[in-house]
Specification:
Number of domains: 2
């Protein structure tokens, strides 16, 4: 059955297995060049927000109240975990 896969299925596997990892690590290492690992690591919690936004944009999913509250909770947590430093 592997040899009977459609092109779209093969592309999806390629994208998920290679392109998304390549892009993710590129962004990760660029962020590490500018910030400490402890600050950068907290942003892994943005994955559910990005996933939900992608579902809304590309799959036509609808946002519900729980998703919005969850996203705001994640963003507030990141703000408290990485407070902005005032420049003198």
């Amino acid at each position: 059955q592997v040899f009977n896969m459609h092109f779209a299925s093969i592309f999806a596997i390629f994208y998920l297995g290679f392109l998304s990892i390549l892009w993710g690590y590129t962004v990760w290492y660029r962020a590490l060049e500018q910030k400490k690992a402890s600050s950068t690591a907290a942003f892994i919690y943005l994955n559910p927000i990005v996933g939900s936004a992608s579902g809304v944009v590309f799959l036509g999913e609808r946002l519900n109240t729980i998703m919005i509250i969850g996203g705001l909770t994640i963003i507030l947590g990141l703000i408290f975990a990485n407070p902005l430093k005032m420049e003198d």
